[in-house]
Design goal:
The complex is a heterodimer of chains A (about 130) and B (about 300).
Chain A lengths: L13 H15 L11 H8 L3 H13 L3 E4 L3 E4 L7 H21 L4 H15 L10
Antiparallel strand pairs in A: 1-2
Helix pairs in contact in A: 1-3, 2-3
Chain B lengths: L1 E12 L2 E12 L3 E5 L6 H8 L7 E6 L2 E2 L5 H4 L2 E5 L10 H8 L8 H10 L13 H13 L5 E5 L7 H13 L7 E5 L3 H7 L2 E6 L2 E7 H7 L1 E6 L14 E6 L3 E6 L10 H5 L4 E6 L2 H14 L7
Helix pairs in contact in B: 5-6
Classes of the chains: A mainly alpha (about 130), B alpha/beta (about 300).
Chain lengths: ~130, ~300
């Protein structure tokens, strides 16, 4: 099993989807600094993707500093400042854009969207906030 | 060196042109999918590559060797599995593997054992008592076990259930060797192919229609939806790379085949100044359908 959650969707470049899923797992704490990252072979077999694509995704993650390639051990998760809020916000960029576009399409006011977000936030708020970033 | 190079290949059967001036390049190390409707020329192409039939004109090279000169020495480096493969049905799985092994110096016993287990094949059962899915797995197994430099698969998934298909893909990847190993696969199962293939070649009527990396293809095509907000657009003057344009009262929907080429200045602003425009990624299947549907509707040349 892969150490991070991913559900590949058709229609989007696979490399991009993997990079996004891994960043999300790092920011969310599912992947910790120093965790061993799957090899090209494992990634390719688990996701049923071309080894070239798996290789490209890992190379991109190393390039962006999310992973580090260490000789003898393989690729591991790079040190990461827990709760870097800018990172988190950046990861949500596409989702936020989609929400705004949909809202505008439907003619919903900004305040109403914000109220809806706040309501959902409230619903999911639990005493045990494992993935909170202060 | 490219694993496969096809240059201006033409093949006629009597008066029928099966291939017309077909050119394709398959880079070493890639997984290349050859797509096209029935009768597009996929199997003819593969038969020429395997030297089962000669071309009428043009040429193809496989692993650096002219296709018409491919013999036993070259075949020992090529794994070929086709939908209509004939297998010695009187043999058991074990007997077939014992029979094949001596022909290939590169036969890998460990890989053979791994695949046998992974494919869940009953070693002692005669091939004539195996299901279609199992037979295809036996064929794939005997082609993978000698670690060919090039794997050629002609419609490997057709008629197989999802479980067998998944086993099949996993088996192919099990034998992979990054960079040194090329797969050429013709298929109708576009969803399976979308994840697996690095590169896609589309042929139609024996001609090349598209030859491009899957990533660039997925980036290039988008379904665009325009919410007009009361405006009247100039549909007549729309770019020719906007395909399958459809208009309802308040909305225009079309497929843009050049989406990834726009930088800051998108043409949507120009055509629909105050409208709300949304773009939606498309699956390889949807792109494939668009290519063939819009081609048949329009008489003028379209830009892909």
């Amino acid at each position: 099993m892969l150490p991070f959650s991913i559900g590949l969707k058709l229609g989007l470049p696979v490399t991009e989807q993997i990079v996004f899923a891994v960043k999300k797992a790092v920011v969310g704490g599912q992947l910790q600094t120093g965790d061993k990252f799957p090899s090209v072979r494992v990634l390719s077999q688990e996701l049923r993707i071309s080894p070239n694509t798996a290789h490209k995704a890992i190379a991109a993650l190393v390039d962006e500093g999310v992973l580090v390639a260490t000789p003898a051990i393989g690729t591991v998760v790079a040190p990461h400042e827990a709760g870097d809020r800018k990172d988190c916000a950046h990861l949500l960029g596409a989702e936020v854009e989609r929400l705004v576009v949909e809202a505008k399409n439907l003619g919903i006011e900004q305040e109403d969207v914000q109220a809806a977000v706040a309501a959902h936030w409230e619903k999911l708020e639990t005493p045990d906030r494992r993935y909170s970033h202060k | 060196m490219n694993a496969i190079e096809i240059n201006n290949l033409t093949r006629r059967y009597g008066r029928t042109d099966a291939l017309v001036d077909l050119s394709l390049t398959v880079h070493t190390g890639s997984i290349f999918a050859l797509l096209g409707p029935n009768g597009a020329g996929k199997t003819t192409t593969i038969k020429i590559l395997m030297n089962l039939i000669p071309p009428t004109s043009g040429r193809a090279t496989v692993l650096g060797v002219e296709s018409t000169r491919i013999g036993p020495k070259e075949r020992a480096q090529i794994g070929y599995v086709s939908e209509n493969q004939t297998l010695p049905l009187w043999m058991s799985v074990r007997q077939l593997l014992d029979y094949c092994r001596p022909f290939y110096p590169s036969w890998d016993r460990n890989l053979e054992t791994t695949l046998l287990k992974q494919f869940n094949l009953p070693e002692d059962r005669k091939l004539k008592h195996l299901s279609r899915g199992m037979l295809m797995k036996v064929a794939l197994m005997s082609a993978l076990s000698y670690r060919p430099k090039l794997l050629v698969l002609d419609e490997p998934f057709s008629g197989l259930d999802p479980l067998v298909r998944d086993d099949f893909v996993q088996g192919i990847l099990e034998a992979s060797d990054l960079g040194n190993w090329t797969v050429f696969i013709s298929s109708h199962d576009i969803d399976e192919i979308e994840r697996l293939a690095d590169h896609v070649g589309v042929i139609d009527g024996g001609r090349t229609k598209l030859n491009e990396s899957s990533e660039s293809l997925l980036m290039r095509f988008r379904r665009i939806e325009v919410n007009l907000q009361g405006q009247t657009p100039l549909l007549e003057e729309m770019p020719t790379n906007w395909l399958a344009v459809d208009r309802a009262s308040e909305r225009v929907i079309f497929i843009d085949s050049r989406y990834s080429e726009y930088t800051a200045d998108s043409p949507y602003q120009r055509y629909f100044p105050d409208a709300v425009v949304t773009s939606h990624p498309m699956t390889l299947r949807e792109i494939f359908l668009t290519l063939f549907r819009s081609d048949r509707k329009t008489s003028v040349g379209i830009r892909l």
